[in-house]
Write the structure tokens for this entry.
Amino acid sequence: MNEAPIEPIRQSPPIVLRLRTIYIVPSKDGFFFGALVMVMLLGSLNYANTMGLILTFFLIGLGLVAMVHTYRNLGGIALRAADATPVFAGQEAMFPIYLRELIGRPRWAINFNCGRGMGVITDLMPGEETSSIFLAVPALQRGDLPLGKVTISTTYPLGLFYAWSVLDFATTCLVYPAPAPRRLPPPPPKPTDNSDEGATPTQRGAEDLAGFRSYQPGDPLRRIHWRAMAREGGLHTILFSGLNNQELWLDWDFLAGLDIESRLSQLCRWILDADQSGNRYGLRLPNHTLAPGQGVGQRHRCLEALARY
């Protein structure tokens, strides 16, 4: 059900991490390490232990070097985000994040967290054009779901310091209503101009050949007359005089008595079923009507209208 959106994917402007936008503090292990070094320093001074002082100053220098490497592990990374592919309410929106290394050194154990899903840890090698990750965000309700602020952090190399920066990506995910179970039958179809209005589908049969017409964007691939294309070089669509040639109107008023979200969920179910069966269908909402059509584009337009109702 998660096909690519029809509109071009919108991407946020690139963000480059500069050292002045990165914050760093000791981690829990870093505080413990610092306390241990202070105890060693006081003990070595109290007992005039030269070897203890050498070890203490070595550990202090090691901590300072680790702090510099932790800080520099984030600097010089360019990031941008893109809109996630539309999902249905109750699923997870997968936001793509694209990274690029600008300085020419490897980056290790970089963590991404948006606060509403599982974090992602990745490495970034120099010379790679673009590396990508996906942040999963629960889509709890229909509408536009923003990615919001993302925290990028690292504790590399020793875990003694925690460096982070907060990024605000202006990207969203369109969340369709959750489809209702298959309980209510759809409204009765109306015959189109390509079918005999006086005959019922059971009388004609769902697979009776009715003719051909020029291919239109959105026509199912299984209805393309491939042999005619091989002979004549043009695309034609096979027309049947059965149910697949019926036109459905999915009307808000057919669901009187249900609340708003239940109506939207049921309309969502009818749209998916009509698209799967290859029917032409239109959608009527209060103050908004979508003309009959078929294919991925029609499905996206109808579901988008439900999501933003």
Observations:
- Residues 50-72 form the longest helix (23 residues).
- Residues 1-8, 194-206 have pLDDT under 50 and may be disordered.
- The chain has six helices and 16 strands.
